[in-house]
Design a protein that fits this description.
Distance between the termini: 34 Å
Number of strands: 14
Shape: globular
Radius of gyration: 24 Å
Strand content: 5-15%
Keywords: Allosteric enzyme, Carbohydrate metabolism, NAD, Oxidoreductase
Structural class: alpha/beta
CATH class of the largest domain: Alpha Beta
Bound molecules: nicotinamide-adenine-dinucleotide
EC number: 1.1.1.22
Number of helices: 21
Protein name: UDP-glucose 6-dehydrogenase
GO biological process, one term: UDP-glucuronate biosynthetic process
InterPro entries: 6-PGluconate_DH-like_C_sf, NAD(P)-bd_dom_sf, UDP-Glc/GDP-Man, UDP-Glc/GDP-Man_DH_C, UDP-Glc/GDP-Man_DH_C_sf, UDP-Glc/GDP-Man_DH_dimer, UDP-Glc/GDP-Man_DH_N, UDPglc_DH_euk
CATH architecture of the largest domain: 3-Layer(aba) Sandwich
Low-confidence stretches: 466-508
Strand order of the largest sheet: 3-2-1-4-5-6
Length: 508
């Protein structure tokens, strides 16, 4: 059997860095080199302050960095020396041309494929770790075939990553499954066996599943679509709860106890964020349209539409509760990362809620325990968020390093990320600092257990759904319903006119 002794990972991001650190940690006899074009990122991986925050990651990196784990910008040498090359670069949603706003941009994958074929010699296994549309491996293979040389033998595998940010190290050490897809030929099966042997250092064989390449690529997109769909499903029910007085937590518990449904991913919230769910569902939608499956495409498009609706609904609620105007009002926004235990803000719901509040002229005082000020300002200054007016960010946004400072003289406190520390804040102290009536909008329902004490302190508490009576005077609430109905209709209309059909732009 071919034995993998040296691994190169192209892309030192949220996936490449943790994945290869865990491989190096678990396989001391394999040398792992993670490379990236981004020099400052590599410098940070080689320093005491890693470029990403993940619980337990620092310990893993420090256990093997300099021994069998290396971070480098010398991409060509690392590819040349490797038996196996992971492609772990970003595959963002396209922002230009055909498929703009929906298709995955594969230009970084293509650049890697061209680099690999140019500098390689002999036998190598090239493995897609990035999330890609189905049949991307075929495009990689065609680039290899068109540029091959007599000494070269490159096998292409698909090995999508299922880690979740915030629990990446645990997910990598104890994965639910490892999925490896490859050719059904003898050569393909040999490559699959070699990669299986790497994971078998710590993953039980029963959890390593092998499939054909296309099933593997599609499984990753489908897994993210199913997860996002659950969030949108429970969020849609939360809107119904709000209109009827049912409690979505109680409904979620009741339906989640059905073993066929299960209890995970049934928490109503201000919507999903992160670099993957939206991007991958949009990619799936685009793929379906390109394959002339419009009914399937519009089914999955609804998952995205519901997420946007939920964010907008939450922002509308805040505005309505604050007597239909937030212009010039100070609002403390706690949490900016897309979920707890990560500093990643990509597609965070906080960005969109901030946008809607800024559109109304609110003054935002933002606190997050892990996100840097520069990142928050950068995210809010993007043209689609700042409405092409980045100056409004300096006028309206202050980033604080202390949650209590953020609440000083605030009309409302808005929780956008479920950081554990928000459960332990001194709310009596916060109440004294805030203007009255003091509103709390708990977009992640982290304060459910404190609901009664918070009301005793004097807060007007509004959770993600239900309980509107405690925070919202009836007259304002009914107005809110009218506005929401309108914005939903407007949203549907926008989605309708967006649906044009185009072929999927592969990168050749
Ligand atoms: N972030 C997640 O939770 C997660 C989970 C599973 C899968 N994925 C998928 O994994 C892939 C990577 O995601 P990420 O979050 O790590 O992205 P990222 O943006 O954090 O990292 C990608 C890195 O690749 C580097 N890069 C791009 N082109 C390069 C090139 N030609 N040569 C060398 N380096 C290059 C970039 O500089 C960047 O540092 C994506 O396809 C994503 O969908 C992400």
């Amino acid at each position: 059997m071919f034995q993998i002794k040296r691994i190169c990972c192209i892309g030192a991001g949220y996936v490449g860095g943790p994945t290869c650190s865990v491989i190096a940690h678990m396989c001391p006899e394999i040398t792992v080199t993670v490379v990236d074009v981004n020099e400052s990122r590599i410098k940070a991986w080689n320093s005491d302050t890693l470029p990403i925050y993940e619980p337990g990651l620092k310990e893993v990196v420090e256990s093997c960095r300099g021994r069998n784990l290396f971070f480098s910008t010398d991409i060509d040498s690392a590819i040349r020396d490797a038996d196996l090359v992971f492609i772990s670069v970003n595959t963002p949603t396209k922002t230009y041309g055909m498929g703009k706003g929906r298709a995955a941009d594969l230009k970084f994958i293509e650049a890697c494929a061209r680099r690999i074929v140019e500098v390689s010699d002999g036998y190598k296994i090239v493995t897609e770790k990035s999330t890609v549309p189905v049949r991307a491996a075929e495009s990689i293979r065609r680039i290899f075939d068109a540029n091959t040389k007599p000494s070269l033998n490159l096998q292409v595998l698909s090995n999508p990553e299922f880690l979740a940010e915030g629990t990446a190290v645990r997910d990598l050490k104890e994965p639910d499954r490892v999925l490896i897809g490859g050719d059904e030929t003898a050569e393909g099966q040999r490559a699959i066996r070699a990669l299986c042997a790497v994971y078998e250092h710590w993953v039980p064989q029963a959890r390593i599943i092998t499939t054909n390449t296309w099933s593997s690529e599609l499984s990753k997109l489908a897994a993210n679509a199913f997860l996002a769909q659950r969030i949108s499903s429970i969020n849609s029910i939360s809107a119904l709860c709000e209109a009827t007085g049912a409690d979505v937590e109680e409904v979620a518990k009741a339906i989640g106890m059905d073993q066929r449904i299960g209890s995970k991913f049934l928490k109503a919230s201000v919507g999903f964020g992160g670099s993957c769910f939206q991007k991958d569902v949009l990619n799936l939608v685009y793929l379906c349209e390109a394959l002339n499956l419009p009914e399937v495409a519009s089914y999955w498009q609804q998952v995205i539409d519901m997420n946007e609706y939920q964010r907008r609904r939450f922002a509308c609620r805040i505005i309505d509760c604050l007597f239909n105007t937030v212009t010039g009002k100070k609002i403390a926004l706690l949490g900016f990362s897309f979920k707890k235990d990560t500093g990643d803000t990509r597609e965070s719901s906080s960005i969109y809620i901030s946008k809607y509040l800024m559109d109304e002229g609110a003054k935002l005082f933002i606190y997050d325990p892990k996100v840097l000020k520069e990142q928050i300002i950068h995210d809010l200054s993007q043209p689609n968020i700042s409405e092409d007016n980045p100056e409004r960010v300096s006028e309206l946004v202050t980033v604080t390093s202390d949650p209590y400072e953020a609440c000083q003289s605030a009309h409302a406190l808005v929780i956008c990320t479920e950081w554990d520390m928000f459960k332990e804040l001194d709310y009596e102290k916060i109440y004294k600092k805030m203007l009255k009536p003091a509103f709390i909008f708990d977009g992640r329902r982290v304060l459910d257990h404190l609901h009664a004490p918070l009301q005793d302190i004097g807060f007007q508490v509004s959770r993600q759904e239900a309980d509107h009576t405690s925070a919202v005077p009836n007259v304002i609430f009914s107005r809110s319903k009218i506005r929401l109905r309108f914005s939903n209709a407007a949203l549907n209309f926008c989605c309708h006119i967006k649906k044009e059909k185009k072929m999927y732009p592969q990168f050749e």
